[in-house]
Amino acid sequence: MSTFWDRKEKPYIVILFCLPFVWMFVSLLMGQYFPDPGKLLMRLSGIWASVAVVAVMAMTLIGKVKSFRFINRYRRFIGLTAFFYALLHFVIYLVLFAGLSWTWISSDLVEKPYIYVGTLALVILAVLALTSTKAMIRKLGKKWKPLHRLMYLAAIGVIAHLWWQVKDDISLALYFSVFLVPLLIMKIPTLPSYKKLFKKT
How many other C-beta atoms are found inside a 10 Å radius of the C-beta of residue 1? Predict the structure, then answer.
C-alpha cells in the first residue's frame, strides 16, 4: 500500500475522482432521478467513464510538455477512474435499468448491438486496471507496453458505443469524438507496426 500512496496528495486525488460518484449516489438517495433512475444514471456514469478515457488518451501527449510532466504520476489513477465509471455504468444497466432480468438483457443483446462494443471496452479497461500495478509491470516486462496499447481499442469502442446508440441527439457522440478521434490519429505514428511499415518503404 505504501507504494500506491507514494505521494501525499494522492488520497486527495482519489477523493476528487470519486466526487461524481458521490454526487450521483447522494442525488439517487434524495430521489432526484426518479421515476426512472436507471436511465439517467446510466447516461451520467457513461459520460464520466468517457471523460476519463479522453483524459487517459490525452495524458501521453500532455505529459510530454515540460510544464505538465507532473501529471504523469496520476496516469494510473485516471486509468482506474475510467474502469471504475465504466464498471459502474455496466452495473447500473444490470441492476437499475434491466432489473437483473435475463429476459430483458437477452432482448437488449438482440436489439442493441452497441452493448457488445461497450462490453469489449469494459473488458479491456478491466485488464488494464488489473495489470497497472508496479508488481504487474515488473512481471510483464516488455509485454506491458504492447498490452496497454489496447487502450486505443477501448477508445475506439467508446466512440462506436456512443454513435451506435444515437437516435436523435448526437451531441454526446459528437463531443467525445471531437476529442478522441484526433488523439487516436496522433497515436498512429507511434505504433510499432506503423514505424516498421515506413522503415521498409
Answer: 5
Kindly report, residue by residue over 69-81, the tens digit of the pLDDT.
888 888 888 999 9
Q: Tell me the whole-structure pTM to 2 decimals.
A: 0.89
Q: What angle do CA 127, 149, 77 make, to 5 degrees?
A: 60
Rounded to whole angstroms, the Cα distance separating 54 from 110 reads: 29
Question: Using alpha carbons only, how large is the chain's radius of gyration in Å?
Answer: 18
SS (HEC) of 141-162: HHHHHHHHCHHHHHHHHHHHHH
Compute the distance between CA of residue 81 and CA of residue 125 in angstroms, rounded to an integer. Answer: 10
Retrieve residue 169's grid coordinates: 441527439
Give 76's contacts (C-beta < 8 A, 6+ positions apart): 132
Q: CA-CA distance, 84 to 48, in Å (whole number)?
A: 10
Identify the residue whose cell numbers are 505529459.
Answer: 63
H helix intervals, the chain: 10-29, 37-62, 75-92, 102-111, 114-130, 134-140, 144-148, 150-164, 171-187, 192-200
